[in-house]
Structure to design on (212 residues):
């Protein structure tokens, strides 16, 4: 119970900071809506469902990067991360809380982005919505881990995309596959396996990242 209490306290801290500062979520909303508006007027009227589906997943990935790039910046700028590392709690709780807070921001952005996408392009079926939910977990798990690595460097704005985008390719493949095939079960299973594998790796190795 102490572990869960630590996670809850840390996640609540991130959510309250965002509620007061309003730095991350508005930027995510403006970015993803702008992307859909631009592509709505730039793509041909008869563009295929596959092209539109690929656009959805690219927009989700890059929108998430906005949140991931800011995830550990306040802690690093205010030297709070050092205090969190020295606190008498499991350091993986920092990763889990940050991932949950980032997941909340991403889901809130998608509550606006997904209806806009459906309005501009085509409707979304249940398999696509489930794929988005599974992809969000993987994005936040991996991205939070890499964000903690990148924030300690001077080139964090460049390093995070370079590390994250190659690892996000399986998410795009699974998401697009689940969106366009008639039997999306194997792609949804692939996304679930990705989430499980990388979440375990990130949870187990986060301590070594923040202590370096």
């Amino acid at each position: 119970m102490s572990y869960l209490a630590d996670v809850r306290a840390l996640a609540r801290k991130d959510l309250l900071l965002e509620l007061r500062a309003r730095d991350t979520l508005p930027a995510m909303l403006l970015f993803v809506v702008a992307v859909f508006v631009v592509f709505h007027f730039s793509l041909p009227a008869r563009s295929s469902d596959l092209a539109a589906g690929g656009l959805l997943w690219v927009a989700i990935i890059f929108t998430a990067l906005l949140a991931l790039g800011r995830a550990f910046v306040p802690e690093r700028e205010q030297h709070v991360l050092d205090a969190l590392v020295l606190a008498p709690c499991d350091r993986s709780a920092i990763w889990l809380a940050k991932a949950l807070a980032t997941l909340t921001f991403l889901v809130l952005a998608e509550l606006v982005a997904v209806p806009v996408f459906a309005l501009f392009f085509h409707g979304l079926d249940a398999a696509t919505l489930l794929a988005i939910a599974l992809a969000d977990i993987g994005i936040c798990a991996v991205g939070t881990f890499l964000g903690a690595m990148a924030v300690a460097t001077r080139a964090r704005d460049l390093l995070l995309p370079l590390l994250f985008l190659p690892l996000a390719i399986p998410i795009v493949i699974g998401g697009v596959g689940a969106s366009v095939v008639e039997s999306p079960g194997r792609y949804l299973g692939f996304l679930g396996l990705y989430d499980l594998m990388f979440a375990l790796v990130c949870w187990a190795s986060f301590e070594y990242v923040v202590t370096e």
Observations:
- The mean pLDDT is 86.
- Residues 2-210 form one domain.
- The CA atoms of residues 150 and 159 lie 6 Å apart.
